Amino acid sequence: MSYLYEGENPAEEAKKSNHVQRKIEKCQKDRKLDPHVEEQFGGGRLLAYIASRPDQCGRDDGYILEGKELEFYMKKIQKKGKGAA
């Protein structure tokens, strides 16, 4: 557990080596995000599939929905919103 001390900024990132910085830049150069996923980032929400096993505390496995699966669940949410109103 980490604690904040006076004068520390919680948003400060850990310092990264030159190798790590170059590696991150290389990965981001070729990165293509689905427009629906970018839209979700802009809105501050992501649709994801989360799975956890019974009696397991503090650990969840899952993935961010994208492609046809994301479209399917977005349609379901829109239908549910129209029916509830």
TrEMBL record:
Gene Ontology molecular function, alphabetical: structural constituent of ribosome
Basic and acidic residues compositional bias, start-end: 12-21
- Which keywords belong to this entry? Ribonucleoprotein, Ribosomal protein
- Asked if the keyword Ribonucleoprotein belongs to this entry, the reply reads yes
Q: Where are the transmembrane segments?
A: none
Give GO terms for biological process.
translation
Stored Gene3D superfamilies: 3.10.290.70
Q: Where is the stretch described as Disordered? A: 1-21
**GO CC annotations on file:** ribosome
Identify the InterPro entries for this entry. Answer: Ribosomal_eS8
The record ties this protein, via PANTHER family, to: 40S RIBOSOMAL PROTEIN S8 (PTHR10394)
Q: What is this protein called?
A: 40S ribosomal protein S8
